């Protein structure tokens, strides 16, 4: 297992910096696109508040993120801190030290806030106070956030095993296991719970649907299959989080496939070629995805047809996209936030959080945009008066 983890980390680092080529060939360095000067921003982006939440957020390949709920904005840091903040002011509601190497989450399920650790611990905290409720240990790193619904919490490790736990005490109810390829990307997509099913994207390029109550497989579908001669060419990981909408279930792979699936059967409603390990965001009129090359795509969510693509931030290691109002936003490896109008993909504003990479998915409440970088700096933004 340690050898596989090291290989996966090395591959992830290489992919971010090098061209897609066989491991034996001389790699081509990808130079991040130099940002064009934006002389006259069309909108004014105002910072509402900012603060630091801990000793960093784990770097490029951590699963730490922001969880925005009606009562609080939840986040965590690698030094073990889990924090609930006021979305309006950034003020601390509660802060807890888990004394663990937190690497994923938080997510919120009912009265619980859930995080995962590098040492294989799933930790459940009281949503109202941050007090620890239970802690359960597993054999491998939990780089995907534990998620829950009702009486079940689902935990996924890098060793290919997934467990259904009791939300009450963390005891095991069911388990699921799939062999992990020898070489994979560093990172895991978060399991997605919809109704009585839990959907998981695997490192093999497959998507599996399990019954939430007992872990029995409802269906399993190949999204990508290995092709090409080089090791990197044959990677098919599903590392980007799945997206659910009224149209169905969106999935994107590193194997160059993005698809809309029927959640009941796993059958494709449409499919096209885009390679991504970063992420997607869907609203009623757009499906946004940041691809492996740092291109931001806007697709028609019902057909998959391309509305526009933005290459002005190519090779800048983009965050998953988000929207605020009529604008699509992505972060990059230098801490910049790039704002595009959603009709034609025209750049309308740019601001900087602090100079460090933004990799965690930004979140929004419709009025404010919340962003965190890998050093644990967190800020809230809103759109001001147009210029």
| Name given to the CATH homologous superfamily | YVTN repeat-like/Quinoprotein amine dehydrogenase
Task: Using the alpha-carbon principal axes, give the shape.
Answer: globular
- The unreliable regions are 1-25
For the record, the CATH architecture stands as 7 Propeller
What oligomeric arrangement do these chains adopt?
single chain
Task: Give short descriptive properties of this protein.
387 residues; mainly beta; Methylamine Dehydrogenase, Chain H; five-stranded mixed β-sheet; 33 strands; 4% helix; 41% strand; globular
Structure explained in plain terms:
By secondary structure, this protein is mainly beta. The protein has a single domain, classed as YVTN repeat-like/Quinoprotein amine dehydrogenase (Methylamine Dehydrogenase, Chain H, 7 Propeller). The protein is 4% helix and 41% strand. The protein has 1 helix and 33 strands. It has one helix at 2-17; strands spanning 45-52, 63-64, 67-68, 73-76, 81-85, 92-97, 102-109, 112-117, 121-126, 132-137, 147-149, 152-156, 161-166, 172-177, 192-194, 197-201, 206-211, 217-222, 243-245, 248-252, 258-261, 268-272, 279-282, 287-290, 296-299, 306-310, 322-324, 327-331, 336-341, 347-352, 363-364, 369-372, 377-383. A 5-stranded mixed β-sheet has the order 2-7-8-9-10, with no helix packed on it. The protein is globular. Residues 1-25 have low confidence and may be disordered.
């Amino acid at each position: 297992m340690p050898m596989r983890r090291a290989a996966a980390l090395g591959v992830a680092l290489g992919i971010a910096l090098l061209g897609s080529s066989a491991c034996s060939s001389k790699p081509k360095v990808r130079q991040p696109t130099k940002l064009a000067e934006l002389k006259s921003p069309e909108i004014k982006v105002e910072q509402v508040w900012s603060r630091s939440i801990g000793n960093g957020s784990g770097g490029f390949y951590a699963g730490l993120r922001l969880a925005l709920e009606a009562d609080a904005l939840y986040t965590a840091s690698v030094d073990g801190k889990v924090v609930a903040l006021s979305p309006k002011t950034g003020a601390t509601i509660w802060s807890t030290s888990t004394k663990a190497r937190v690497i994923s989450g938080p997510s919120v399920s009912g009265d619980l806030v859930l995080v995962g650790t590098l040492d294989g611990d799933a930790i459940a905290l009281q949503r109202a106070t941050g007090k620890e409720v239970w802690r359960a240990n597993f054999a491998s790193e939990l780089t995907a956030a534990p998620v829950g619904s009702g009486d079940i919490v689902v935990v996924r490790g890098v060793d290919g095993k997934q467990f259904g736990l009791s939300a009450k005490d963390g005891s095991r109810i069911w388990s699921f296991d799939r062999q992990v390829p020898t070489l994979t990307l560093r990172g895991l997509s978060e399991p997605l719970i919809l109704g009585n099913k839990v959907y998981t994207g695997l490192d093999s390029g497959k998507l599996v649907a399990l019954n939430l109550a007992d872990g029995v497989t409802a269906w399993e579908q190949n999204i990508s299959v290995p092709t090409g001669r080089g090791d990197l060419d044959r990677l098919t990981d599903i590392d980007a989080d799945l997206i659910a909408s009224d149209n169905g279930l969106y999935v994107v792979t590193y194997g160059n496939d993005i698809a809309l699936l029927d959640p009941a059967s796993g059958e494709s409603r449409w499919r096209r070629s885009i390679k991504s390990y970063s992420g997607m965001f869907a609203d009623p009129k757009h499906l946004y995805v940041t691809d492996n090359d740092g291109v931001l795509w806007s697709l028609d969510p019902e057909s998959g047809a391309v509305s526009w693509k933005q290459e002005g931030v190519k090779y800048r290691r983009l965050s998953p996209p988000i929207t605020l109002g009529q604008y699509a936003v992505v972060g990059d490896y230098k801490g910049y936030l790039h704002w595009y109008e959603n009709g034609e993909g025209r750049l309308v504003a740019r601001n900087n959080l602090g100079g460090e990479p933004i990799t965690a998915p930004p979140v929004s409440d419709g009025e404010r945009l919340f962003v965190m970088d890998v050093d644990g700096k967190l800020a809230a933004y809103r759109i001001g008066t147009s210029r």
